[in-house]
């Protein structure tokens, strides 16, 4: 199943490092579950209903091609690793949404 992403999350790993990720309500639910069970330290929604730019579409396609939809109560946390090109897309998404 292809996921559509419409929000930006700030995820704090257990080592206190932070990264940003595209998400949706389902992904945020997984993130919250992971935080409650100690797989990550915290998750916070930075912006909802982001615009469907070409950068969002490219990163969304990359995530959908390389990762599977996990159940809500997944025991663990899977960080979506990005290529340098996909990191650039995420940076552009943050800038488009005045978060970078």
The overall average pLDDT, rounded, is 95
Helix content: 25-40%
Strand content: 15-25%
Overall shape? globular
> What are the low-pLDDT stretches, counting only 5+ consecutive residues below 50?
none
Looking across the biggest beta sheet, what order are the strands in?
Answer: 2-1-3
Count of β-strands: 3
Terminal residue distance: 30 Å
| Largest sheet features | 3 strands, antiparallel
Q: What's the tally of helices? A: 3
- The gyration radius over C-alpha positions equals 13 Å
Structural class: alpha+beta
Which H/E pattern describes the elements? Answer: EEHEHH
List the helices and strands and how they pair.
Layout: E1 7-12, E2 18-23, H1 25-36, E3 42-48, H2 54-66, H3 84-96
Antiparallel strand pairs: 1-2, 1-3
